[in-house]
């Protein structure tokens, strides 16, 4: 139970898909002009991640990883098909998205009207494939945890797009320097929000803090030396961060 | 430019500046930002995308009259996924350390929006040679931004370029460090990638006011 809660909060806040690993940035920037559309896309991402990550976990466990085929018999124990994981994962995602679209259209037209237009967009959203690839890279141990990971990463993504959409709706009334308007200021705000989210890094004590993304660990070690520098910056970001919470 | 007609060279040169995939079309940001803490990783990523987009555009363009439009997304995904697997295996064989640094981001080239975007917008409706040039041009535009961001982040963050110390030795206090200069380790953290790209966009749009957005 403890590992479930820990993974849940870790995936939402510390390893937030948008702010820590930049996954799904394209749709994050393109669909965040209005809160209502952002909510629709965010909900669709939660849904699809929660379905595809456990499915791909099963694929990885029983088909792809080194020795995964041993359930077929001892002569298959030496096979390592992990080079096929990209193509199988993306195929699962594309089919699932199509299937979900058909099922939702049939059984819940209301949900289809709110989610439907975003579903095709999602097949090529990096957050979805990224969720499966990180699940594989971090060696999530059980099906339940894989479901938890998909769900909570989706919620993290949802929070991020909701926050930026709310800020962008307000920022329309501010006097931003013309060359920064639109894309430029969105990038800088996202950067500041990411700095704010870094302060969640101290939230978990004990448990497995090892084995995050390789790139992140190397970076974070160097970061410790510059912690003073960082703390100055976080003060500035609390302003923008408070703004998120008000929304 | 006798090799290329004027129209063809525009295909390559346009995405480098005024129609840049990252700063103007807002495509392919996902995998672009996470790996730019080092210049070397940025260059390898740029080359991988160049390979995938150049060849992918050619393949899709060759098949453009055979693909039923209803299943074109799946066909495109299969083509990209195959090319990315090739890149991934080559990296693992010849640059294992680097493939560890890039980790899942090589795989994420599959869902890089630049690639699907160019397939949809260009390769499905144009000939092979023009599609190839378009792919090379857009991948180069993507690579230029990656290399600029990687250059500044590595230079200011760790004082090195491609792993070689260029500003002196921070421990023995030689070069610039003798004058009291310190590395800004904050540049190596992921949020700075976003801010550096934001500043690049600012710079580009100040130079070319035609690109400024309404709000």
General description of the model:
- The complex is a heterodimer of chains A (247) and B (215).
- Chain A has 247 residues and is mostly helical.
- Chain A has one domain (1-215).
- In chain A, 72% of the residues lie in helices and 0% in strands.
- The longest helix of chain A has 30 residues, at 35-64.
- Chain A is globular.
- Chain A starts with a helix and ends with a helix.
- The relative contact order of chain A is 0.17.
- Mean pLDDT of chain A is 77; it is low at 211-223 and 225-247.
- With 215 residues, chain B is mostly helical.
- Chain B has one domain (20-214).
- Chain B is 60% helix and 2% strand.
- Chain B contains eight helices and two strands.
- A two-stranded antiparallel sheet of chain B has the order 1-2.
- In chain B, β1 (160-161) and β2 form a beta hairpin.
- In chain B, α3 (39-62) packs antiparallel against α7, α4 packs across α5 and α6 (113-123) runs antiparallel to α7 (128-158).
- The model of chain B has no long low-confidence stretch (mean pLDDT 81).
- At the A-B interface, α2, α3, α5, α8 and α10 of A face α2, α4 and α8 of B.
- Mean pLDDT reading of chain A: 77
Describe the strand arrangement of the main beta sheet of chain B, using strand numbers. Answer: 1-2
Radius of gyration of chain A: 20 Å
SSE run of chain A: HHHHHHHHHHHH
Q: What's the number of helices of chain A?
A: 12
Computed over alpha carbons, the radius of gyration of chain B is: 19 Å
Reported for the largest beta sheet of chain A, the result is: none
> First CA to last CA of chain A: what distance?
32 Å
Derived from helix and strand composition plus strand pairing, the structural class of chain B reads mainly alpha
Q: Roughly what percent helix of chain A?
A: over 70%
**DSSP, total strands of chain A:** 0
Please count the helical segments of chain B.
8
Question: What quaternary form is this?
Answer: heterodimer
Low-confidence stretches of chain A: 211-223, 225-247
Strand content of the residues of chain B, in percent? under 5%
Query: What is the strand content of chain A?
Result: under 5%
Give the overall shape of chain A: globular
What number is the mean pLDDT of chain B?
A: 81
Enzyme class (chain B): translocase
GO molecular function (chain B): oxidoreductase activity, acting on NAD(P)H, quinone or similar compound as acceptor
InterPro entries (chain B): NqrD (IPR011292), NqrDE/RnfAE (IPR003667)
Protein name (chain B): Na(+)-translocating NADH-quinone reductase subunit D
